[in-house]
Amino acid sequence: MIVFKIGGSVITKKDEYRTSRKDALRQILLVITQFPGKKIIVHGGGSFGHIKAKEFELPGRITENTRMGYAVIHRDMTELNQLVVSMLIEMGVPAVGMSSATLGLEGKISYDHIGNLFSRGLVPVLYGDVYPMRGGRFGIYSGDTIVHDLSIRYKPGKVIFFTDVDGIYDKDPKTHPDAKLLRTVDLKPQFGTIQNDVTGGMGGKFSTIQKIRLHCKEVYLLNGNYPERILEKRRKAFIGTVIS
Ligand code: ATP
Ligand code: IP8
């Protein structure tokens, strides 16, 4: 089984509210469909999630403001999910969207439901979303955390992350032109903060990947603007980061 995480940084314009990058998304999905066998697809929020989360101060306590934020973000994330699902269906994939807004109060996905879809040959498409927490709060369940939970449950052979950069660099490549792509990570990189991101950006992703790694053989990070790079069979020629 392979788990794919399609980053909001590549399928949306992260600083333009609710703006998708349909061509990039289509190219990524075309590559994903070339992988035989069982797969689960997860996508992030980009400008459909993070901008309003910041504006409405989510995650946070339940107030009139966060209640409205919850509704807006769930609507927007569902819209992005439907775009992903519709493209997959047009490609002949029996994809089914599933929100983490239906999570239990502990913030855990219903694996039973995923398993039921899975065992019937359907392809679940999950996404980062808001969810109700215990203790009078609303939470945000990041797509990266979903990938972690799925990894614990399914122990995938590979986990593949697509973002808008070539992989993990020694420092943020957007602000440091001399940043070096790390083919594998054996030092602690520096991570830049991202303005429109409430779930930790690449630094948060890196910590989650360390945990994912305990449950799967290989984690790949590559640029979703060049998704075909993942099809390169020779490990040395692959442009991206591999953590194994
Ligand atoms: P989303 O959470 O919306 O799904 P994503 O998972 O696609 O987004 P981001 O969380 O936006 O991705 O992280 C990608 C960004 O991380 C890049 O645009 C890059 O500028 C930034 N970044 C910061 N530090 C680093 C680093 N050391 N190596 C690589 N990218 C970095
Ligand atoms: O983009 C969070 O998921 P992520 C989505 O994978 C929201 O971190 C709602 C901000």
Account of the 3D structure:
The protein is an alpha/beta fold. The chain has a single domain (2-243), classed as 3-Layer(aba) Sandwich (Carbamate kinase). Helices cover 33% and strands 19% of the residues. It is built from 7 helices and 10 strands. It has helices at residues 8-11, 22-32, 50-55, 64-90, 111-118, 143-154, 201-212; strands spanning 2-6, 39-43, 60-61, 95-99, 123-127, 129-132, 137-141, 158-163, 218-223, 241-243. Strand 4 (95-99), helix 5 and strand 5 (123-127) form a beta-alpha-beta unit. The protein is globular and about 55 Å long.
CATH architecture: 3-Layer(aba) Sandwich
Number of domains: 1
Q: Let me know the average pLDDT.
A: 92
How helix-rich are the residues, as a percent range?
25-40%
Features:
single chain; 244 residues; alpha/beta; Carbamate kinase; 7-stranded mixed beta sheet; 3-stranded antiparallel beta sheet; 7 helices; 10 strands; globular; binds adenosine-5'-triphosphate; binds Isopentenyl phosphate
